[in-house]
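Task card 7
Instruction: Convert sequence to structure tokens.
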Amino acid sequence: MPHGGEHAGVARGGGAERSARPGRAASVVVPFPRPRALPPAASLLPSGRSLLAAFGLVAVALAAYLVARETAVFAVRSVEVDGAPPAVALQVRHALRDELGASLVRVDLDRARERVARLPTVAAVAFDRAFPHTLRVRVVPERPVAVLRQGASAWLVSARGRVMAALPRRSHLELPRLWLPKGAPVAVGGRAPVELAPMLEVVRPLARVGLGARVRSVRASASELTLVLRRGLEIRLGDARDARLKLAVAARVLPLVPAGARYLDVSVPGRPVAGSDWTRPPASPTPSPNTQVSTRG
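Output:
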């Protein structure tokens, strides 16, 4: 019996030993998110009904464009000109006369722009299709500033130096005259001769400083530009540098010039001098016939 007890004790001891061992930690399985399954390629394609509708819209749009282009549905019935005086607007309409009756969709705006820009009275032009029947033209006209004279011939010239038109004598009397040397080439639509560049630099701002209609002519020499007013007074500017400043000074000083003065010298804008003889005053004017005009106040 002792053996049996021993075995039983051993068995009990083994059980106690097993129960004394630490238990194993429970295993935890963490599931990873599975990627979403892509839809089959066939489901990404538009349906037959969608394709049919899309092709139908394209066909309708193409048919509408062809109808508008090839028929008189959008025929040009009028040309509206904005920004130009009546005479220039008439020239623009005449230049675009071939577009009347053509489809507004078919009008070649680049070619039309080229035709209008060739007009000597037009500085810039832009177009707009005003459906259903109007071609709208926005024009920046050339600004006339002087009359070129050469013998008995006369031409109108713009601020940009473009020859705008041939003129009859004694027209545009409100503009100053610029005299050309004999034989200098002049063509309507072309540029004024280069030797007139200093004179044009002077006449451009005349209207803005209030001298526009008061100047009868402009003379130029190698070193001097002279404005001759309609009352006979000369405004001597020296060279063309600071022309706008000199003209502004002259416009301000003119009311102070004595009645008997024959010239006003503003070649030095800070020291305008009026004189009653035709000679230029010396560097330090003496109280002789020349009068220094103050511009203070």
